[in-house]
Amino acid sequence: METLGMIINFIAVLLLIRPPLPLGSKTQHFKWEVGYAFRSPDCVEGLVMGINGQFPGPTIRAEAGDTLHVELTNRLHTEGVVIHWHGIRQFGTPWADGTASVSQCAINPGETFVYRFKVDKAGTHFYHGHYGMQRSAGLYGSLIVDVAEGEKEPFDYDGEFSLLLSDWWHQSVHEQEVGLSSMPFRWIGEPQSLLINGRGQYTCSFASSFIVAGSNTTAGRGRQCQFLGHEECAPQILPVLPNRTYRLRLASATSLASLNFAVASHKLVVVEADGNYVQPFAVDDLDIYSGETYSVLLTTDQNPAANYFISAGVRGRQPNTTQALTILNYKPNPPFKPPPLPPPVTPRWDDFDRSKRFSLKIHALAGRSPKPPMKSNRQIVLLNTQNTVNGLLRWSINNISLALPATPYLGSIKFRLKHAFDGAPPPETFLANYDLMRPLANPNSTIGSRVYRLRLNSTVDVVLQNANAMKENVSEIHPWHLHGHDFWVLGYGEGRFVAAEAERHFNLEDPPLKNTAVVYPYGWTAIRFVADNPGAWAFHCHVEAHLHMGMGVVFAEGVDRVRGIPVEAIACGSTAKMRMASNDERGQELTRD
Amino acid sequence: METLGMIINFIAVLLLIRPPLPLGSKTQHFKWEVGYAFRSPDCVEGLVMGINGQFPGPTIRAEAGDTLHVELTNRLHTEGVVIHWHGIRQFGTPWADGTASVSQCAINPGETFVYRFKVDKAGTHFYHGHYGMQRSAGLYGSLIVDVAEGEKEPFDYDGEFSLLLSDWWHQSVHEQEVGLSSMPFRWIGEPQSLLINGRGQYTCSFASSFIVAGSNTTAGRGRQCQFLGHEECAPQILPVLPNRTYRLRLASATSLASLNFAVASHKLVVVEADGNYVQPFAVDDLDIYSGETYSVLLTTDQNPAANYFISAGVRGRQPNTTQALTILNYKPNPPFKPPPLPPPVTPRWDDFDRSKRFSLKIHALAGRSPKPPMKSNRQIVLLNTQNTVNGLLRWSINNISLALPATPYLGSIKFRLKHAFDGAPPPETFLANYDLMRPLANPNSTIGSRVYRLRLNSTVDVVLQNANAMKENVSEIHPWHLHGHDFWVLGYGEGRFVAAEAERHFNLEDPPLKNTAVVYPYGWTAIRFVADNPGAWAFHCHVEAHLHMGMGVVFAEGVDRVRGIPVEAIACGSTAKMRMASNDERGQELTRD
Predict the structure, then answer these.
(1) Which of 41-70 (A) contact B at CB < 8 A?
(2) Which of A48, A113, A178, A590 would you mutate first to test chain B, the one with the most B CBs within 10 A?
């Protein structure tokens, strides 16, 4: 029985290692149904939101230049749904970005929406729900784009694994959403489990022999897991041969957790970040924030008689969740042969200097990335503050807490609807005398739906400015994700961003291109991008609860140039009403007698 | 502290007793927001779906002839919502019936829909969610229509109370829905608690001194409740004066439970059923099925030194839920003064003869109700069977299990859309050789969305035919509710309905007018109505889980005559697409390049 499980596991993983043969066709078709199912992702049963009965959703494997055609049917009973293709820029198809209230109407139960878009360059990506907190419900999967036939990656490897990292709560997403919007406020708390490819262990540990009293570095509950391999919460083992090089594709779909990833006794060479090549550098572990992806190369140069633990542990917040674990299984050892060495120790959660040192190691690979324009046309400084609005705890950006409108921006901007959102321009910066180091003296903020209108093809600098939260001496980490664009990360700094001083130290030589960047406690992060993609695009903290609490903004550029919005993308709210109330005979009939 | 609670309780109930003064205006305006909140309806905390923070929703009190104008805003995060005004016929406003997929599109999060309709006659009604299983989530409230100024009821009373009865689960509605749609099937089980006006006691009983071993007639968990009166799960006490007559308005919003209602030591005189006057008759207790309402008169003719238990207990299914209890509080006794007598004993759950005897006592009040036409133009026999469809457990009607389409019937019929639902006529009856007394030999059935098209102003007989379910020797009770009409209940019978025989015994003299009628195990129930209300109308089992599993049909009559459908009611699905794809310039732009 155990042998059978092992074989199945091995075959399953082999399928993951080998990319399918190049497809003759350049368009790939998928028929997906989103629905809930009862599953035990961490050995505890609950509802998960899956696709075609799978959790995580099916892995998409494409080649650069392919067109993906995903017919998504909503099989939920009362909830809308959308899917965001995280890292895909959607040039020419802004309605396919899958962001409710921004790029499209939520797909109603029973309805089908076609996501059709081109994956224009190779990279490690993922996809996930982007309505309410449905990502937290488990609506995510991997999206891997290989180089086009005949093209070559700037590094070699013998095999690869995709590891999609996430965090998991036992409380339902509806309870989480309501708690966050309640008076008194109810925080979601730390996750019960961390998952690797949708698998974790809450009720047992398969490294229990290494549990150190008072330590959170090994998984908890004391009991040793007994897996045959086919269990829903059995870790997915990574089978490798000695003296080979493997590419690990990491993606973090976490709702909250910043993670540190490591493989015991093995170096990791970072070669890709957010779908862009970076100058290779070796590390013992790496930090990965929600919304980020990395590729690392691992060489199986250790004692092949042993297996080794692979771990992901919480950083950036005081951890209360055991590490996610799986095994690097040197064949022909049995997959579950206990590693003789303990799992890697996750670095201290609040050693932010260590985290910053890692961030600063990331540079674009020369010759494989465009360089940033030397100057920007506009600088927008976004101060994040924790506020109360009408008694509710919220996050605000320049004193406005984002509340997404019922009508998606793409349609309401395109058709110049007056009342679908607040048309006033949001603030470009914050007050010069604002004290970043203390809680707000007067925390009252407003709810808003304003849009930063960007001139098409202009170069925009955005500075994320962190500050003290509501509580004294607390400033949190926020990973910000930009839709529709990659951006260059020009620099990180401490305290207040002072342009004249900071800009002298901007990295304009080899800044990494990313779509997600973190702002450290009490610090700032400066990014630059070219607003060259007509559409409406969210830019937001990728912590699901923080976005729910208003931590985001919306950019829009060249929307008047957008052509071909499918009717289904805007068949709701004010755009539906405006376009349905035409003047033909039927229209007359529809107005009240 | 106790005294304060008692006073507050007393004042609160006084407010319920006294109808507000007649309004100068004939239109009442309400602004409602639907949202989830954490509450403890039965002393156990969970999410409830409420209105303006209230659970149950606010009571509406109107006069016959009033127009209600309810601006309903959806404050849920990802779920649509509608509200059905149960018992209101919606003459001329079929889009205001609040039935998702039938009369309107679900209202999306952040959107507002205006329900504007006339309450044309006096009666005891309620309102509730009608999308997915949102009624089970707690979305319901009372709707009481008094006689118009100058009119008189055909009975007298000194005061009144509204008692809205419901059942409550600790499992979330989402889990319930998914379980019912899963393979293997997961039944919701019996409710954890029964609630009176949203209040029950799961963790304690306030009649614990009467608990009899092995009996389910008194509330459980053994522990005596200690209430001050202000607790969310404290029962709402009914304060009365001796030697007065009170009207108790009962409405059952249960998801599953058939209930028996009684007041210890007191007779109940039934005077109203489903908003129609009936010939008064006295009983010790009455059965009330989901979807039904009754008014009973109670005279406080018992020993005024005591309080008395009021109870509602489960019938029709093997009960596993303790009685709902509250107190008839003869003033000046303290409200929580323990009654010396035990709560009423709920009659045996499977004594269906007793239930039928009660049903047969209900007759229309002479001179206050229209009589039925002596003949019908059409007879539709609806056999209900429990089936499997593609491995899923479903309920079917004449072998079709209802799956509601994404586009509401009202719009798709009005605009003659070809593919919004299955246009074929559903079967008028079932096979003559079908064996009602056994499980189906071949239980395969189909999912469908067909509509019974009724000729406007024709008289239609519908026979509900019960049968054996999937399990041997099981046939369940089903209370069927008709939207948009009252119907006459012409008769009940055992076994197979044989028209020639049965019709000779139809009550055409004084059949009660109702909107909900029960069909007993292995029996049939015959109803008659005039299809005089242009619109599309659901007719379905009011057991929430059964409707979810397909137990319903749709009637439509005179839809071509419907004028003035508000655009918001049909701004989804195929009606939105059809009407948005007009030929003007903008329309051109919206089609794909």
Answers:
(1) 47
(2) A590
3-state secondary structure of A140: strand
Query: Is A405 part of the contact surface with chain B (CB cutoff 8 Å)?
Result: yes
Question: Taking 50 as the threshold, does the pLDDT of residue B12 lie above it?
Answer: no
Angle between helix B573-580 and helix A573-580 axes, rounded to 10 deg:
50
Alpha carbon distance A76, A79 (integer Å): 6
Rounded to whole angstroms, the Cα distance separating B551 from B541 reads: 6
Strand residues in A362-442 grouped as ranges (E)? 378-389, 392-397, 400-402
Are residues B222 and B329 both part of a single domain? yes
pLDDT at B589 over 50: no
Query: Is pLDDT at B591 greater than 90 in this prediction?
Result: no
What letter would DSSP give residue B502? H
Average pLDDT over residues B356-382: 97
Q: Is A111 on the interface with B (CB under 8 A)?
A: yes
Residues A28, A69, single domain; the answer is: yes
Q: Which residue of B has its CA nearest to A80?
A: B78
Instruction: Tell me which residue has tokens 């006057």.
Output: B277
Tokens of A2: 């155990």
> Largest Cα–Cα distance of chain B, in whole Å?
83
Task: Please name the helix (run of DSSP H) or strand (run of DSSP E) that holds residue B71, with its range, or none.
Answer: strand B67-74
Q: Please report, for residues A221, A323, B78, B140, the alpha-carbon distance to residue B36 in angstroms, rounded to integers and kept in the order given.
A: 33, 33, 11, 13
- Kindly tell me the sign of the dihedral angle through the C-alpha atoms of A337, A341, A342, A347: negative
What's the half-sphere exposure (Cβ side, CA atoms, 13 Å) at B312? 28
Q: Span B326-350, mean pLDDT? A: 96
Tokens linked to B168: 């409550």
Picking from A36, A75, A78, A422 by the largest number of B CB atoms within 10 A of its own CB, the best residue to mutate is: A78
Burial of B503 from C-beta contacts in 10 A (0-12 / 13-18 / 19+): middle
Does residue B564 belong to the interface with chain A, where contact is any CB pair within 8 Å?
Answer: yes
Which ranges of A19-155 would DSSP assign to H, the alpha helix?
A: none
- Assign 3-class secondary structure to A67-136: EEEEEEEECCCCECECEEEECCCCCCCHHHCCCECCCECCECCCCEEEEEEECCCCEEEEEEECCCCCCC
Alpha helices in B125-187 (DSSP H): 173-180
Question: In the 8-state DSSP scheme, what is residue A317?
Answer: S
Contact A111 B577 (CB under 8 A): no
Would you say residue A519 lies in a domain?
A: yes
**CATH number of A289's domain:** 2.60.40.420
Q: List the domain range (segments joined by +) for residue B345.
A: 2-360
DSSP state of B210: G
Identify how many contiguous H helices and E strands chain A contains and give both numbers: 8, 32
CA B254 to CA B544: how far, in whole Å? 8
Contacts of A567 in chain B (CB under 8 A): 576-577, 580-581, 590-591
Same domain, B31 and B86: yes
Q: Report the complex ipTM.
A: 0.93
Percent of chain A with pLDDT over 90: 87
Q: What phi and psi, each to the nearest 5 degrees, are found at residue B94?
A: -60, -25
Contact A109 B80 (CB under 8 A): yes
Q: Report the C-alpha gap between B6 and A305 in whole angstroms.
A: 76
Residues A150 and A10 in one domain: yes
Cα maximum dimension of chain A? 83
Same domain assignment for residues A411 and A321: no
Residues facing residue B62 across a β-bridge: B145
∠ CA B77-A202-A173 to the nearest 5 degrees? 5
Q: What type of residue is A144?
A: I
Whether residues A311 and A382 share a domain: the answer is no
CA A526 vs. chain centroid, Å, equals: 19
User: B81: part of which helix (H) or strand (E)?
Assistant: none
Q: pLDDT exceeding 70 applies to what percent of chain A?
A: 92
φ and ψ of A72, to 5 deg: -105, 120
Query: What's the pLDDT band for B13 if we cut at 50, 70, 90?
Result: very low
Which residues is B493 bridged to in the sheet? B524
Q: Provide the residue count of chain B.
A: 593
